Amino acid sequence: MPAARGALPPRYALPPMPFTGWPAAAFEFYAGLEADNSKAYWTAHREIYDSCVKAPFEAFGEQVRAEFGPLRLFRPYRDTRFAKDKTPYKTAAAAATEGEGGTHYYVQVSAEGLFVGAGYYHLAPDQLERYRVAAADGRSGPKLEAALAALGQKKYDTTPADALKTAPRGYPTDHPRIALLRRKGVHAGRAFGTPRWVSTKGALDRIVTVWRDTKPMNDWLDRFVGPSEEAPPEPD
């Protein structure tokens, strides 16, 4: 079948857009959205989202696909069905990819700037059970402690998003790794803000460096925890 009029034949398809970071307009877009989270604002500025937020994410995804897998950009719309907050749009754009072992690699832009992270942000019940067994073990547990300590020395934030106030059931409160056992997730990240390099191709190296720096932690998680065997949540 001949190509549609005006369309390029497959062999002449345009190459992927080069990744040159996120322009200042991307962060300004989200600052405006925080001030006016409305359909009117979104419609009036949709072109900025498409060209300055979405397109750079897609270009970045092409650059990291071979090493980290396909990147998935989350939808910009909030699910307000059961929320008290009915504002329709997320005030950040984020994308993630999952490594072969189960680690998630995450990148986000918002009015505050660029954030990059990796790990297992929230452990499903079956993952949590495997994690606690390995964290409590006298051979495997200290290795995770060491990996997190090394990341802390490099100024990465390894603070858990949430944690139990006491020991999980079946574990003593004076366990030598009680801080690990109280966790519900293990991850590390860094908030970069909006330095000039965020809007250049140099952003690629900065992001990938974070993901590579977390390898010892991620290797531990992939070995002892791995992907959840429960039904995955609905796509966001």
3D structure, described in words:
The chain starts with 23 loop residues before the first helix and ends in a 12-residue tail after the last helix. It has a single domain (18-72, 89-224), classed as Protein of unknown function DUF1054 (BirA Bifunctional Protein, domain 2), CATH 3.30.930.20. The protein has 236 residues and is an alpha+beta fold. The chain is built from 7 helices and 5 strands. Helix 1 (24-35) packs across helix 2 and helix 4 (141-153) runs antiparallel to helix 7 (215-224).
CATH class call: Alpha Beta
Provide the gyration radius in Å. 20 Å
Strand content: 5-15%
CATH superfamily: Protein of unknown function DUF1054
Number of domains: 1
Number of strands: 5
Run of helices and strands: HHEEEEHHHEHH
Report the CATH architecture. 2-Layer Sandwich
Strand order of the largest sheet: 1-2-3-4-5
Total helical elements: 7
How far apart are the first and last residues' alpha carbons, in Å?
A: 37 Å
Give the CATH topology.
Answer: BirA Bifunctional Protein, domain 2
Low-pLDDT stretches are none
What overall form do the CA principal axes indicate? globular
- Report helical residue fraction: 25-40%
State the secondary-structure class: alpha+beta
Instruction: Report the sheet with the most strands, covering strand number, pairing sense and barrel closure.
Output: 5 strands, antiparallel
Mean pLDDT: 92
Overview in brief:
It is built from seven helices and five strands. It is of the alpha+beta class. It has a five-stranded antiparallel β-sheet.
